[in-house]
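Lab notebook page, bench 4
Experiment: in silico fold of construct C2
Operator: M.H.
Input chain length: 289 residues
Purpose: comparison with the prior construct
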Amino acid sequence: MTLKELRDRILLQEDLNFLLTNRIPRIALTRWMGKFSKIKNPIVRDISIAFWKMCSDLDLSEAKKSKFESLHDCFIRELKPGLRSFDPNPNTICSPCDGIVGACGAIENDQIFQAKGMPYSLKELMGSDEVANRHRNGTYVTLRLTSSMYHRFHAPADCSVQRVTHIQGDTWNVNPIALKRVERLFCRNERAVIEMTLTKSKQALTLVPVGAVLVASVRLHCLDLQLHHDYTGPQTLTCNAQAQKGEEMGWFEHGSTIIVFAPEGMQLAQGIENGHRIKLGEPLLQIAA
């Protein structure tokens, strides 16, 4: 049996999958992985990437470079120029990343869902009444990044970033199995709340990158710092950064989830539903004409 076949068999055993990825010292392992992945030793690098390829569908053919300094360097790899294009329609909000669409749809006042029958509160996730109120009865889309995907995220439209709130938390796995078992999982995990204003329509758009086991670190260019579990700076950081549609905003250290929140009046783009695989730059939301 190959490692991929063993992986697939484990993934099909939900109890075992949940046990192996959650009933472990999550935060300690996440800290260790952050240090281990940055080791710039050719042997450690090559063995780590080879093992990663055997255990996943990792494809490095789209990577801008073919040689990496470390496992971390491979995780946050850039794409070759021209591989992703952004929908030019100014009324289209594009996907900020490659991902798999999870729960999505209408926000019912303050309630949203991580999985069927598993609601959570917009206010609790964002840690602010003010931010939550901008999206009551609006629309949301959950985008899950697997470990082998491109891990950088980009501006979904022409916009400005006014404020980022870092909320320290746990590092539960964010795969579908965990989302069906752990109540309010996104509200428990490490996350950043990125408040944005669309340049054209002046509407609010909020991105919430959520950390996970082995992945509780995010880098944001607008702040020029790294937010992680041991970050001891201020929780709320103000900025006034302009970004054009498609411009890189930052990256996850490994891969996790981004939840996109839009105000009332925006709709899901055609084809956006649970399980849909989407590429960076493809239509995600539509502003009403």
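Observations: Residues 3-75 form one domain. The chain has two domains: 3-75, 92-287.
Next step: discuss at group meeting.
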